[in-house]
Structures are given as C-alpha cells and as structure tokens.
Amino acid sequence: MEEAAPAAGEAVGRVLGTQAASPLSFWVGLEPGKVVQLDDVVVTRRDVPGYGPVLVAGVVTTVEARHEGAAYDSDVFLIADGALPAAVVEVAEVRVTRVEPEVFVPPLPGAKVHLAGSDDREQALYFDVMDRRIPIGMGRDGRPMYANFDFLDGTRGAHVSISGVSGVATKTSFATFLLYSIFNSGVLDAESANTKALIFSVKGEDLLFLDHDNLRLDEGARAVYARLGLPARPFGSVHVFAPPRPGDANGVPHVSARTQGVSSFYWTLVEFCEEELLRFVFADADDERAGYSLLVGQVAARLKAWAEPVGDGGAVMVRGTAARTFADLVELLSDQLQDESTRQQWTGAQTPLGTVNAFLRRLRSAVRPLSPIVRGDLPFYRNHTVSTSDAQVSIVDLHNLPERAQRFVVGVVLRGEFHRKESSGTARPLLFVVLDELNKYAPREGDSPIKEILLDVAERGRSLGVILIGAQQTASEVERRIVSNSAVRVAGRLDPAEAARSEYGWLPPAVRERATIAKPGTMFVAQPEIPVPLAVAFPFPAWATRPAEAAAPAVAKASSGDPFQGLPGVEEDIPPF
C-alpha cells in the first residue's frame, strides 16, 4: 500500500513582495534548488487577528525563470561567461483554489510556501468535502484526482462534455474510463448491478471488446489502477448490437472480429409505420429548414393509420399495396404522392408539387443507407431491438452504416430509451449515454428530431436519470444549451484556433495554451466545486481498445454434469484471436 504523504509538504519558496498578492492569486519566489511545475498544489498560511491561522491553497498556473540583473538580451552571454554578475530567479504564479476558514486576506510577502501534503491537498482541491467521489486519473504529483459524483448522477448536476482533436485527444478512451470508474469505485453501492451504459460506436470495431482483457496491460499500469483504488480488469457485462449485413437473408450481424455476445438490430416496416419513424429519415438540420418538413409529419401520420401487418416478416399493406422492403415502401409513397387523385389524402391539404418532389427526392436518397436496418423480409419474432436490459454496457455499432443511417439509429434508439425512462417514473437506476461526434447530431445551427431529443436529455435527463457523456472535436459547433448544461467539462488536445473560442472560457489562458500541446491521455477536467481545471492522466485501459489487443475470454468451468457447459452455442463461433 502507498504510504501517505506528510501533512506538511516540502518548503519551496516565499510569497513575493515585488508582485501584488491578493486573496485570489499570488506569486512565489522559489528557493535555490527548489522546483515547482504547472499543476502543483501549494499552500501558505497567515495568522489573522481574531481568526487564527488561515490556510491559503492554490494551484501553480505559471512558472517563469529569468536573469535578475540583466538589462539587455545580449547580457545572457556575458552572464554565462561569468563576465557580468546576475542571479537566476524562478518564480511561480499561484491561482488560489481555497481559503480555509473563509477569511479572504492576501498572503503576506515573505511567508513560506509549501508543496501541499496529503491533508492540505485534500482541502485545496475540495476532495475532503466529496462524500461520493470517483477517481478520474493521476495528478502531476503522482497522486489520484477525483470528481464529485454528485455532479454526475443528477444530485447536484449532470452530464459531461469532452472536447478535443480527433485521434489525439483520446475522448472516447476517457469516456470509457470514466464509465469504468463509476461502475467500479463503489459510489453506486447496491445500484451498481442495475446501472446501465449505452455507447454508440462509430470508430471501427475498437469498442467491441470492452469485456476482454488487454494484452498490452503491464505491471506498471496495474499499479496505477491500484493507486486509484480500482481493479485492473475489463468491463464485466457487455452486449454488442450491430446492423445486419447488407443483402443477408438471415440478418447476420455485420461485424468481423467479434462473434460472441453480438445481436442484430433493425426495425420492421410495421414498427417503422406504427412508431412514426419517418421523421428520423429526415434527421438532418437542413431537412427542418426545407419546405417539406410539415409534409413529413403528415405522411408519417397516414402510414401509422393505414399500414397493416402482412405475414410474420414485418411487411405491411398500405391501401391495397404490399411492401416487404424499404424500397417497396418508398416506391409506394412515390406513386401515391405523384398521383393527383390520391396526393391530397396523404398531404391533408393542397401542397405544391415542387414541395412533394423535393420530399420524394430526399426520401429516395435514403433507400440505400436505410435498407439494411428497415426490413420487412426477416422473421418478425426474432429479437431485433436495441435494449439496455441485457447487459451493464450496451454498445451500438454504427461504423458500417452510412452517416444518414447513423443519424436514424441514434435518433430512434435515444427516443426509445428516453421514453422508457420517462414511463418508469423514477430516476434510478441511472442510464449513461456515450455519444461521440455530438456536433454532428446537435449542431449549433438548425433543428432536427435528434437535436430535440438531445436537448431534452440535457435539460430534463438529470431528473429522469439519463446522463449524457458527449464528445466532440469542436464544442463551438455544438448547441450551446447542451454544453452549458454539462456540469463536468473535459478538454484533451485542442486545435489552437478552437482553443481561442469563447466556449473554452472555463480554461485559464495558460491551460488553453497547454491544451494545444497536450499528449494523448492528458485531460483537463473542470467541475463546479473546484475553481481551476485539474490536469489528469488516466491509466492505460485494462480492457481491449482494438481487436489486436483482445485476450480470449475465459471459458466458465463446468459446475454440473453437462460436458458442453461454457462452450459456444449453435450460432456462436470461437473468436478468431
């Protein structure tokens, strides 16, 4: 077990008198041979008459070194040669995070400044008042950093916004680690088994092996998990949902590396009509600005009223015409809307032919992307819905679908889960939704059915127990209300132009600059209780993050007389790794 740090840390310098000190920030002159770095936690004390000793704690935000006594830039060469006397001086700016007790007086010049020991660090970063805290990574001092779970589960706040450059900021990796910490830190107590996570995966098959050990996990990484108080193991309960292979008559899931614990998802034409899913075919923000947006609702209502099931494959009969594929249904609508004798029955009013044609052009363009997931030719009795009840973590694999089909799936699945939580009448158990590329589904400009749902989640999800963990490359392009409703904000590596946007005002200027050079695995986490963002490094994943890292799952030993117990079923194959 790691030894506790001393209550009072090492003295590193004194409060400067040449720079003004305030209750909010001050400068420290470092003693010769002493070093502090960005993000170090330091403390100083002052005796205040009538109050006693007052702790002033803060985080180092700037470190500077200069020659004291040099007047010109060229003096550096003379000083280095010993021809000009000068002293090397290092100073650090400290942003105050906590004053205890709350007597807001500045530290006095000359007062000693110490690196924070264990107790002082807990106070400085408010860890001592977090009744339910979860580890979010290691600090620069090699000790655990925490987030207050009250700001994640809806007690005092909810939702997480993660921003960063694609491929470098490790947004998805941090989101999965955050989920892992929530599930394994003990903050959920008895609710842990029933708390669920729904992850939409768009990056290949990298997220399909969360329940497999990572072959690259070494002893050093295991030691980090131990210091964080977490077990170094994969997720325990994972179910993957994937679309059927295009053209496959049996609806086999369209995945290649994983074959166990994978189910196909799709919607029958009966469900498409009964649940009025047509509006999610037009889920682009441009569709809402087009003149046919009202027509979409009218046609969806007619399909709900007139469509009748045919057979057991999910096909429908609409006004005497059968449709067994999505292409059939689109052709049926095209014939009905182009026929002057039937058009008004579908539109409910006089609708310009140009509007109808624009609607049909957009609808026909959806045939190819949506045909694999809107079906009337597969057995209706088969389980084909995305459900979070089968496992603790449900992964919806979207990477094999075109972008338009991805929008459809995200919108329909989110609506279904949100309505399920609404009808349950209770916020518990919690449902965490991880959605990458949030700027695509909830852009700042325009409206769409998916954006409406995500806004509902951001504004009402806290009371319903639906927690959004959204990730995006550019927070400046995401709907403001979604970002502003996120209690916890995280930034990884940022593009310099993006870092200058006002949406990152929660990052101090020095941290903004650092975010442009941050290495993968380093995140800056802001939460309401702590005045400055915490720089954390989360550990190497204990679960496989790509097929090549996945260890074969352990086969359960037979505990009965059945010699075949624990072997793959009829429809399952042993994974090819």
From TrEMBL:
GO molecular function: ATP binding
Superkingdom of origin organism: Bacteria
InterPro entries in alphabetical order: P-loop_NTPase (IPR027417), T4SS_component (IPR051162)
Keyword presence, Nucleotidyltransferase: no
Region (Disordered): 551-577
Keyword ATP-binding attached: yes
Keyword entries, A-Z: ATP-binding, Nucleotide-binding
Protein name: ATP-binding protein
Organism in which the protein naturally occurs: Nonomuraea longispora
